[in-house]
Amino acid sequence: MAVTGLFVALVALGVVPVIATGSPWALVVWLVVVAVLTGLDVALAGSPRQLTLRRRLPGAIRLGETAEARLTIVNDGRRTIRGVVRDAWQPSAGAWPTRRALALPPGGATTNTTTLTPFRRGVRSADAVTVRTIGPLRLAGRQATHALPGAVTVLPRFSSRKHLPSRLARLRELDGRTSVMIRGQGTEFDSLREYVRGDDVRSIDWRATARRDEAVVRTWRPERDRRVVVVVDSGRTSAARIDDEPRLDTAFESALLLAALASQAGDRVDVVVVDSRVRARVQGTSGPALLSSMVDAMAPLDPELVETDWAAVPGVVRSVTTRRALVVLATTVDSPGASRALLAAVPQLARRHLVVVASVTDPTLEALSVERSSRDAVYRAASAERARLDAARVRAALVQSGAEVVTGAPADLPPALADRYLALKAAGRL
Q1: What is the C-alpha separation between 124 and 46, in angstroms, rounded?
Q2: Considering the entire predicted model, what is its pTM?
Q3: 195, 293 Cβ separation under 8 angstroms
Q4: 186, 221 in Cβ contact below 8 A?
Q5: Alpha carbon distance 253, 31 (integer Å)
Q6: Which of 131, 136, 390, 427 has CB 3.0 to 4.6 Å from 48, enough for a Cys bridge?
Q7: Exposure of 325 by Cβ count < 10 A (0-12 exposed, 13-18 middle, 19+ buried)?
Q8: What is the mean pLDDT of residues 159-180?
Q9: What is the mean predicted confidence (pLDDT) over 172-183?
């Protein structure tokens, strides 16, 4: 049974006959009357258990986008249902509204539409629907909870896809497919053309020049069908939020943009998400299905509060490919103590592969390091500067171990990693 505010007010009015008559029996009589009215109201209220409920949910939506979830309610009873229905979505699903007034005649049906604007990636679920019916006197009613599980998969945002057209244009220039016709670099021979001022003399084909009356240079196109292995760290450091976004989500953004670009370049992309174990793999997929497979694999993953087993990462990469590859480690370059295992694993990978470490940086550290307005600000500045120096030491150690390091704020890291890939492609290092 559920009571309303009117019931509470009616009970409180029992003080009036007590004051008027001066007898405590007046209160007893009043409470008996209220109890009888309440019981009658509950008996006349429609039964919430005689409702049939069905959900219709969107299959998947991207983080930050909006979708509609529909809840259909059918009254199978003989009485009119009046009350409130509450759809219990997780708070991170961003459901609105969660409560609606309900008025259904016998045999009637209605459909409630709930707007979902999730602010967390993953599986956002609703477990039950609670219906509270109110009697005709508005004093009390009945309440029942219907188990009606439902879930919506929230995919990674991939807002960095806005950088893809400009990077694809640069890739086409490297491949020599645009009207610019600049000379690409690499190891795959493309064609011969006349020498023009500014060309590298090392590209002159002396045999072809000897057969002609003018100097001829070789043109090259960037290599295709190379291997790109992206290793995403989902350990405890990936749970930290920077600019209100977990580091893991920034790593996913970077991996998606790089995969979209590399697949267009004709390279094969494999993705592995690891912490103390392998959490997800995307292998053997190419073309349009690559990004779809990646977002499906990434969507349900959350950071694990464990240390990442970097000692196992070289073996994981070997299980993906035995060929020389570009290995991208999307992780956190932090203090030397926290990065000790990473520093031990990078030389093993660098002996066989080209290694790039991509790490998101906190832009507030730079702002804190220059603030000197108060004593507390000075202490914060010292701490921020210490953190920046520690990160710089780790970056220097990674470079000394044979890796390249790409850093940036959450909005800057994905395009910066894509630019580094294009630079390596243009330099013929892949």
Answers
A1: 32
A2: 0.80
A3: no
A4: yes
A5: 64
A6: 131
A7: buried
A8: 79
A9: 55
CA distances from 311 to 133, 195, 275, 342 (A): 60, 50, 11, 8
* Domain identity same for 238 and 128: no
Residue 209 inside a domain? The answer is no
Beta-strand pair 60-62/140-155: parallel
Q: Are 283 and 290 in contact (CB under 8 A)?
A: no
Q: Alpha-carbon distance 173 to 221, whole Å?
A: 10
Same domain, 122 and 234: no
110-125 tens-digit pLDDT: 999 999 999 999 999 9
Is residue 116 domain-shared with residue 246, that is, in the same domain?
A: no
> What domain range is 338 assigned to?
159-163+224-426
Q: With helix as H, strand as E and coil as C, how does the chain read?
A: CEECHHHHHHHHCCHHHHHHHCCCHHHHHHHHHHHHHHHHHHHHCCCHHHEEEEEECCCEEECCCCEEEEEEEEECCCCCEEEEEEEEECHHHCEECCEEEEEECCCCEEEEEEEECCCCCEEEEEEEEEEEEECCCCCEEEEEEEEEEEEEEEECCCHHHHHHHHHHHHHHHHHCCCCCCCCECCCEEEEEEECCCCCCHHHECHHHHHCCCCCEEEEEECCCCCEEEEEEECCHHHHCEECCEEHHHHHHHHHHHHHHHHHHCCCEEEEEEECCCEEEEECCCCCHHHHHHHHHHHCCCCCCCCCCCHHHHHHHHHHHCCCCEEEEEECCCCCCCCCHHHHHHHHHHHCCCEEEEEEECCHHHHHHHCCCCCHHHHHHHHHHHHHHHHHHHHHHHHHHCCEEEEEECCCCHHHHHHHHHHHHHHCCCC
Q: What is the CATH number for 258?
A: 3.40.50.410
- Amino acid identity of 1? M
Write out the two tokens for 82. Answer: 């009046």
User: How many residues are listed for the chain in this entry?
Assistant: 430
Per-residue pLDDT tens for 367-411? 888 888 888 999 999 999 999 999 999 999 999 999 999 999 999
CATH number of 103's domain: 2.60.40.10
- What's the total number of domains in the chain? 2
12-16, 208-212, 312-316: least confident range: 208-212
Tokens of 124: 């956002």
Residue 210: helix, strand or coil by DSSP? helix
